[in-house]
Specification:
Order of helices and strands: EEHEHEEHEHEHEEEEEHHHHEEEEEH
Number of strands: 17
Largest sheet: 7 strands, mixed
CATH topology of the largest domain: L-2-Hydroxyisocaproate Dehydrogenase, Chain A, domain 2
Structural class: alpha/beta
CATH class of the largest domain: Alpha Beta
Radius of gyration: 19 Å
């Protein structure tokens, strides 16, 4: 197996902590990606982890070779990425922030176990509220800031691209747009930078023959994106496929050292006047995690909303003494 001689990390090994709907979907998506040759699943319910590992392993003959097994925290020591999906799931009528107390408590049992193994790889936080838990992980782990990141608004941004693609009748992969701030109710669409393969949103709408004043349509799209999870949870009780694809995408950027720009959640260090809180901004993501944030152009109103989003998260952190 390929090794990193500096710290004996197996760059082809991934660990997933939490085998609920999200963890299992992430494991399945990652298995199909061919990124890793070894994957360990860890869950407080060992039998659940064993069942998921066995079930997913039966699809390996249709994919790339990979060893998938249920393990313990001892098995994370040489993993390149530890993905944490463990925690209480969001129920109908709950916001992501409603999960704070329950999931902070769970993380206070998980992160010390990781630290005890002197783990020095990258931790990718997926559990909600992801921004709060990314900050919690950073404070409890003792790892460098760049090695702790949350899935953030990678999925929200994908949902935005999908909605805009549907509205404009264009391939969503040609839509370049970001959701920034909290992965939650205070998230912001960075409309100032939206473009379709380099063409501004206004010009593209005009080119498509839409009314120049498309403000109401954009407001509705932003609401649709923000409420996507609530709608899915109401209809099928959980969301997991979209986030699984998002996690796979982040892992690709790390393992292949792609230097891709993704809106992951990471600790702010004075950007836009923000610090002491993790939230989503476009960042260059590669083998060392978050390399640097990308200073995208924002309007005064967008910066104001971003700062308000950060204050909401800071208040939650204070209330929970994190």
């Amino acid at each position: 197996m390929e090794k990193n001689c500096l710290n004996c990390t197996n760059v082809r090994k991934v660990a997933i902590i939490g085998c609920g709907f999200v963890g299992a979907a992430c494991a399945f998506s990652i298995m199909q990606s061919g990124l890793f040759s070894e994957m360990v699943l860890i869950d407080s319910d060992r039998a659940r982890a064993e069942g998921e590992a066995l079930d997913i392993s039966h699809g390996v003959p249709f994919a790339k070779p990979i060893k998938i097994f249920a393990g313990s925290y001892d098995d994370i020591k040489n993993a390149s990425i530890v993905i944490i999906t463990a925690g209480a799931s969001q129920k109908e009528g709950e916001t992501r922030l409603d999960l704070v107390k329950k999931n902070i408590s769970i993380f206070k049992s998980i992160i010390p176990e990781i630290k005890k193994r002197q783990y020095d790889g990258i931790i990718l936080v997926v559990s909600n509220p992801v921004d709060i838990l990314t900050t919690v992980t950073l404070k409890l782990s003792g790892l460098q800031k760049n090695k702790i990141l949350g899935s953030g608004t990678v999925l929200d941004s994908a949902r935005l691209k999908y909605e805009l693609g549907e509205y404009l009748n264009v391939d969503p992969r040609s839509v370049h747009s970001f959701i920034i701030g909290e992965h939650g109710d205070s998230e912001i669409v960075a409309w100032s930078g939206v473009n379709i393969s380099g063409v501004s949103l206004d010009k593209f709408c005009e080119m498509r023959g839409y009314c120049l004043d498309h403000t109401e349509a954009m407001k509705q799209i932003a609401e649709n994106v923000k409420n996507s999870a609530y709608e899915i949870i109401t209809k099928k009780r959980a969301t997991y496929y979209g986030i699984a694809m998002s996690v796979k995408r982040i892992c690709e950027a790390i393992i292949r050292d792609e230097k891709s720009i993704l809106p992951v959640s990471s600790m702010m260090n004075g950007e836009y006047g923000l610090e002491g809180v993790s939230l989503s901004m476009p960042a260059i993501v590669g083998k060392d995690g978050v390399e640097t944030l990308v200073p995208i152009e924002l309007s005064e109103e967008e910066i104001k909303l971003l700062q308000q989003s950060a204050e909401i998260l800071k208040d939650v952190l204070k209330e929970n003494e994190v």
